[in-house]
Batch of 4 targets.
Target 1
Amino acid sequence: APALFITDVSAELAQLARIASVPHLCILQHGDRSDPGHRAAYAGAVGLLAPYSPALECPERPEWMTAKTIYAGGIGVDVSLIGPKDSARRKLGLSEDTELVVVLGGGGGNGLPSAPLTLGARGEPETSWVTLGKMQGEWHETPPANLRHLGWVDNAEDWISAADRIVSSCGNTTVHMVANAAKPWVVVPEWRYFSEQLRKAEALDRAGAAAMAHHWPGNAENWKTLWSRASAVDPARQSGLVQTDAAHHAAASVEALIERVWKPASPAAETHDRVEKDAA
């Protein structure tokens, strides 16, 4: 007899809860989720929980959905790990005057394509480019000396803190860690079901938080254009996407939702319901 069943983006489990007459709350993600399964899950939910800021909401979401959405930008992400650039550089043994571009890849795809990054790094020989995550190479590429592939690391937050500029995919954790760092930022979405990362990248670009590239740059001029757009981003818009008390806010909102769902109806409300039913 649960007070509330929270489903992590599973339309099937949401329908199971509805069939069992158990109130459920759905985790909401970006993407084209207007299919019957997702819409039925959202419609049957007593509430929705979005792990992102309302500034990143999809414009096509109907009012009935946003009206019952709890927004908790950055929930589950320890943004306190992002610290001052100078202290992060000392920790990593990096020079304070070195221009540093950090490229972050997620774990859900085939890896970062190294050829476009080779072009970007070669176009900035005085800048150090560092990649974190899995790489996907090409036989014809010739990486320059200022491009280093570190693979998976345990201290990605130090590299984010130390960076002058960042390139990343659009997973939830990555987005909120980088947004909290508030730096020139280029986002390149990875393929995901329902175009999830594509829609998140579009939302970041629309909110003025990052410069979106629909695909990886094919030459140095493309990189220059992206960096020009990224340098115009307002850092306040980036940091404003992250709610420092997201977890507490979400927990309190869920508790309030449970109280509303299970609060006994007042006599006046019961009388009103009977009148409405008799009139029908």
Note: The two ends are 32 Å apart (CA to CA).
Target 2
Amino acid sequence: NAAASAVTLAATAGAWQGKVITADLAKETVGKPSKVFQATVGTWVVAQDGPDKVMKIDGGIWKAAQTNEAKMLIENARRLYGTNNEELMDNAKQFATFPVAVLTGYDGFSNGTISVKFKTVSGESDRASGILFNVKPNGDWLSIRYNDTENNVALWEFHNGIRRNVKFNRDKKFMLDPDCKRPVLGTCGGWHELKLTVAGADLKAWLDGDLAMEYTLGTEPGPGRNGTPPNEDLFPKNNAVLRPPVMGRIGLWAKTDSTSLFKDFTWTPAK
């Protein structure tokens, strides 16, 4: 089955170095949770989009279930990480703001490339779609994401139960679907590609083939807003998720009430 295929890929990772591997949703059941991606936070289901089976994050259900978000996280996280990770449990309330689905059977992505195609459907508070990576056993992570409300790309980190921005792209606004009118969002939006490359400490993000951001892990943070000192968690010495090398689980990321579709999730371990 699909889950077994993902496990097989992980078991033969050495043989796949330098080759493009795709998360195969073909055998998944529409309307049901995926076996290829473990939904750790949020309501993720397999959906049909034209001829393709895709992953869908349903932000509308997230919004309706906000009172249960921490409970949902704890139940799902224990299935993924076991029952003894108390640090992850302590972070549950804050973590639950950001729906994530982790690729099953593959927990050691380091150097290489991750790409995914996404389509924005709806969202009142947010319309964000992203790649999750460097996921640590305690639930800390990094994410590269595109936000359709801000038309930008950003690198975010999650540590000690709090998400903080590491870097925004400042030079360009990405107006991906300029003809879409917000009252009918979802009826004219198209598919777009978000890609991340990791080479040691160097990260690069690409949006529809355009270089959108570059960042070097281990970089000391600059001043905060209005010249205030940066938060201590943004110093790599205090935060393992910001120190090279990248090594951890990978998957899909969203925010609050975003509803998005994802397909063609691929990863290429470097040679």
Note: The chain has a mean pLDDT of 83.
Target 3
Amino acid sequence: MKMKIYNTLEKQVSPTAVALGYFDGVHIGHQKVLKKTAKFKKEGLIPTVFTFSSNPKSEIMKIPEKKIFSMDEKQNAMQNLGIEIMYVTDFSKIKNMSAEQFVREVLFKTLNAKVVICGFNYHFGAGGLADATDLKRICLDYGITTKIVNPVLFNKSPVSSTRIRKALMEGNTFELQNMLRK
């Protein structure tokens, strides 16, 4: 089945499990979040991703974005990991929402999320001031379960898009292969 992609916040009727993040590079840490999301299919939830068309950090810091994967590569990787729906949102449309508003309006009312999954370092809400612990606390008020994925380590350090960009710049194919492997 081909993954459905929405560029607007279409209301979901069916209940979803939603992975949250930018997922640039879909590295092994991202893959852990996405695989965990896909497992909720067995519980009748549609595996869904909520992401952005551009990197929020680049927009906030007003710096050019250095993408690891194109949007097509990202979509293919996610579909191969079992994601069925992908919301690709313009960051500017939600960047001023408070953490509470985001959970209520986007996760609860629009995406019909029953479970949300994110990495340990997830930040959201206006100014990125809320973190994964705040997400868990706010989601409780809406009956949404939150799963926080611990860091995936390579050479004793968390895998991140920043590390992958550094390895790309240095031409370190060994690190790249290990951090991007499936």
Note: DSSP finds seven helices and ten strands in the chain.
Target 4
Amino acid sequence: GLRVPELVDLADLPDPSQRWITRTFAGGASANRRDVFLALGGFHEYLFHWGEEPDYCLRLLQSGRVVRVANSDRLHHYPVQAGRHTRARNVYINRNRMLAHWYNAPSLLLAPLLARESFVAMKEAVTTRNTVPLESCWRGWCGCVHEWRERHAVDPAVFSLFMELRKKKLIPLAEVEGRLPELV
């Protein structure tokens, strides 16, 4: 199914006195510096309907910047579950995961990540008896060919930090400051 980023409630922070970072954000519940957003190329135009935010956040991390958990008025985002979207929208789920890897994954990890996404799509198609995941996967491979010039792999250490953030959800900024690239 759809992998929606978990939103963080400031009340759930382990230590509110620290500055915390996370891997990504929900686009409808965010504030971005316009100059940075434009300098990093914004969202990939070809990547839409699920996946733009993590793709952008990985490039943000590569530039030495982070997604910081901050105080604001509460925003509510009620994403529709994957099974409730139309077929036309669901075909973008696996496609965009594959494209995000294509755009950013370090070269040594690219083939295993694309193979994994293909396997996940095939497994989902078999277990749900639905061809949408296979079509989505096919669109992902075609998208990689279409976007072949847009590949700009991030540094392996940055990718590793991004995956660590995915697993832990939150990390104190002080813990990773020394691992961030110099600001671009």
Note: The mean pLDDT is 85.
